[in-house]
TrEMBL record:
Organism: Trematosphaeria pertusa
InterPro entries documented for this protein: HPP, TM_HPP
Keywords: Membrane, Transmembrane, Transmembrane helix
Domain HPP transmembrane region: 51-211
Protein name (record): HPP transmembrane region domain-containing protein
Annotated stretches, region: Disordered: 283-306
The UniProt record lists the keyword Transmembrane helix: yes
Keyword Transmembrane in record: yes
Record field: transmembrane: 52-73, 113-130, 142-161, 181-203
Length: 306
């Protein structure tokens, strides 16, 4: 049992390893400068502004972003037909990431848009299953907890972690007016997040830079040549872990053991062949060590005689 638990600690699924191979490189550098600037592109990366100016722009951005979302929701007849809340609560948490911590990986467009959408989709799906029971009102708190847990797991596996998304999943189960919307809530969350990002592109790029990246901090062109994994660094950002495909697919045999690719399974004959090769290497190593030991002893004897 402990061995199984120890093996699970090394399990890792990096969806970008497969997706980034088909993602086209960023075209932002080819666009006119006024356009590319407000899409987050900079020829030279600069440090963010001080926290005083950052606080001012954070305040302006949060106000404008949430006000525009509320105005769009409350003045669109197609949306008002579904009796939505004046403002979805999870957008308040997103505003902190989108206009305050704008360099955080959790607030970049991929995380914000897909994290909210995926979480809302999970929340509505779980809630619809629970609503099949007649006592839904008594157990909807369970639906909310399950929705948040599953949404959190899905966001992590898809590289779209956005903490406010967890709130969207919970709201789908526990807020009566949102529960009644059903699948429409998914589209509403996606639209609201899109509006928030549009405001962020304008406000955050006046004196700051947003987004830091749209899809990934890595150069996707390199992914076609190498296997590239992304891992967190000590600053809350990302760092890349690169392993050549040739190295990943290699079989290494030494006197101490045999190293195989993780996804390569051997039959009994192949395993026995590799083990025999390892034993031969071990015997040769032992023989060389004995010869060196014998030579050292002989030289020591001659030194004692003279």
């Amino acid at each position: 049992m402990m061995g199984l638990l120890a093996r699970t600690e090394t399990w890792n699924f990096d969806i970008d390893r497969y997706i980034n191979r088909v993602i086209p490189p960023s075209p932002l550098h080819r666009l006119p400068n006024p356009v590319s600037r407000f899409l987050g592109y900079r020829k030279e990366q600069k440090q963010d502004v001080g926290n005083v100016l950052g606080a001012i722009w954070s305040c302006v951005g949060a106000f404008c972003g949430l006000a525009i979302i509320a105005a769009a929701f409350n003045n669109t007849e197609a949306i008002q037909v579904h009796s939505p809340p004046a403002l979805i609560a999870s957008f308040g948490a997103s505003a902190v990431l989108e206009y305050n911590a704008i360099r955080s990986p959790l607030g970049q467009p991929r995380n914000a848009l897909l994290g909210h959408t995926v979480s809302a989709l999970v929340g509505v799906s779980i809630t619809k299953l629970f609503r099949l029971r007649s006592d839904f009102e008594k157990i909807k708190w369970i639906a909310g907890a399950i929705s948040c847990g599953i949404a959190s797991a899905v966001m992590l596996l898809t590289g779209t972690v956005h903490p406010p998304g967890g709130a969207s999943a919970v709201l789908a189960a526990t807020s009566p007016e949102i529960t009644e919307m059903g699948w429409y809530f998914v589209g509403l969350v996606t639209w609201g997040t899109t509006l928030m990002l549009i405001v962020g592109l304008i406000i955050n790029n006046i004196q700051r830079q947003f987004p830091v990246y749209w899809w990934t901090p890595l150069d996707v062109r390199r992914t076609r040549r190498k296997d590239v994994e992304v891992g967190p660094d000590a600053t809350g950002g990302f760092r890349e872990k690169t392993v050549d495909l040739a190295e990943r697919q290699a079989i290494n045999i030494s006197a101490l053991g045999v190293s195989l690719p993780e996804d390569l399974a051997l039959d009994q004959d192949e395993a026995e062949l590799l083990e025999r090769l390892r034993e031969r290497l071990k015997k040769r190593q032992d023989r060389e060590m004995d010869e060196e030991s014998s030579t050292s002893s002989t030289e020591s004897g001659w030194e004692q005689q003279y």
